[in-house]
Design goal:
mainly alpha, three-stranded antiparallel sheet, Arc Repressor Mutant, subunit A, 11% strand
């Protein structure tokens, strides 16, 4: 990881995404200190603890006691988290049909075919 200068700011959400990547790759709970070392971002331990706490409060991470603090791990894998975000966005707009229509119209032919296949598989298993 490339360290940022103190006066450089990351785009919104970038650090959280980097933290999630570290936790997914670790495959086991990690403390704020462990995540900070893995990121090599030069952040204060308290800053990393705050980031992890916020991800926990958003429901993205679960935590367990570890010494005087906590160890954190992802609630879902990366595709599961994206699916949760997509569903949350869909549920936030009262015009769900329009949102879905626009989403589908933006898909590539391959993605559209994949969606058709998945919908058919879901229908077949529900019968």
């Amino acid at each position: 990881m490339v360290k940022k200068r103190q006066d450089e700011r990351r785009p919104h959400g970038e650090l959280g995404a980097e933290v999630m990547k570290v936790l997914w790759e670790a495959g086991e709970p990690m403390t704020a200190q462990q995540v900070n070392v893995a990121l090599d971002a030069g952040l204060a331990r308290t800053t990393m603890a705050t980031i992890l706490k916020r991800l926990y409060e958003q429901g993205t991470l679960r935590r367990s006691a570890s010494g005087r603090g906590f160890a954190y791990e992802p609630v879902q894998d990366a595709p599961g988290l994206v699916a949760v975000r997509m569903r949350r966005e869909l549920e936030s707009d009262p015009r769900r049909d329009l949102v879905l229509k626009r989403f589908i119209s933006s898909l590539s032919e391959d993605d559209e075919e994949t969606l058709r296949r998945l919908l058919q598989e879901a229908e077949d298993t529900s019968e």
